[in-house]
Amino acid sequence: MFLTSKTALVTGGNSGLGLEVAKGLIKSKCKVIILGKDKAKVEKAIFDLKSNLVTSVTCDLRSQTQIEKTVQQIGDIDILINCAGIIAYQPLPVHDSKNIRDIIETNLLGTIYVTRSVLPTMLKKNSGTIMNISSTSGLPTGGSPNESVYVASKFGVSGFTESLKKEVDDQKKNVRILGFYPGGMNTQLFSKSGLTKDTSKFMDPAEIAKIIVFMLERPDAIKMDHVVVNRNKNL
Ligand SMILES: NC(=O)c1ccc[n+]([C@@H]2O[C@H](COP(=O)([O-])OP(=O)(O)OC[C@H]3O[C@@H](n4cnc5c(N)ncnc54)[C@H](OP(=O)(O)O)[C@@H]3O)[C@@H](O)[C@H]2O)c1
User: GO molecular-function annotation terms (predicted)?
Assistant: First the structure.
């Protein structure tokens, strides 16, 4: 897809992978709308990006009402990247109930509700791309101790993506549903959740964003619809 003059909504676009994807899209002359929950952080990202192609919206993905209102305000978009996410690392019995809800609401329900709000217009105009950022944790081989709730949310995103892909294909619509499954990246995902984890050897999100932009730039008929990117464990 030629990205010039297209409009992309990137959830979680103020940080980490989402921010790098926003940068890559802007380089390809795509208009970008960054969605984040924290007004100050979103405004800082806009300031740092220094581009007249980027705008922002503030929306907490834990709120279905906010999502629906926000998408309605934005109007037509050509590309949706569901990238926002949070993690927790703790044994299930000590997992706080609010934290469990936050993870499922942000990672899984947020993805489902934003997609449900955006998809009807894409189907109607018979054009558009939705990419869901799952994780290698969301693959059948995934699953790690102390990450059960995060992994459950990512399995949910994977199942949602794979099923929706078939639903849209069955309608013979020219709308791409793409699943992206990265391994560990060097972002603030862990530190924001209060985790001390050495991520310095994890993948550079800027490199991962390049792959995402490459996928989006393919012609509409070319669907790289299940891409797994993992770091070489020997390095
Ligand atoms: N880092 C990894 O190792 C890794 C591996 C596989 C998959 N992933 C996935 O990649 C995606 C991007 O994560 P990242 O590593 O780039 O982490 P990140 O830098 O923490 O980015 C996450 C983004 O999601 C936003 N967000 C969190 N809760 C939100 C909410 N309720 N409403 C709206 N936005 C919200 C954050 O906003 P704030 O800045 O305001 O919190 C931030 O912009 C996530 O889906 C993550 O699960 C990450």
Answer: oxidoreductase activity
Q: Which domains does the chain have, with CATH numbers?
A: 10-229 (3.40.50.720)
User: Do residues 188 and 15 lie in contact, with contact meaning Cβ atoms separated by under 8 Å?
Assistant: yes
Global confidence as pTM: 0.98
Residue 89 a catalytic site member: no
CA of 1 from ligand 1 middle (Å) equals 26
Ligand 1 atom, smallest distance to 137 CA: 6
For the Cβ of 142 lying below 6 angstroms from any atom of ligand 1, the answer is no
Contacts of 184 (CB under 8 A, 6+ apart): 199, 202, 203, 231
Residue 42: which of 30, 53, 33, 51 has the closest Cα? 33
135 lines ligand 1 (CB under 6 A): yes
Distance of CA 93 from the midpoint of ligand 1 (Å): 24
Q: Which spans in 35-109 are helix H?
A: 39-49, 64-74, 97-103
Q: Which of 185, 207, 211, 231 to mutate to test the pocket of ligand 1 (most atoms within 8 A of CB)?
A: 185
In angstroms, the CA 2 to CA 7 distance is 11
Dump pLDDT digits (tens) for 163-212.
999 999 999 999 999 999 999 999 999 999 888 889 999 999 999 999 99
Yes or no: say if 117 and 67 are a contact pair by the CB < 8 Å rule.
yes
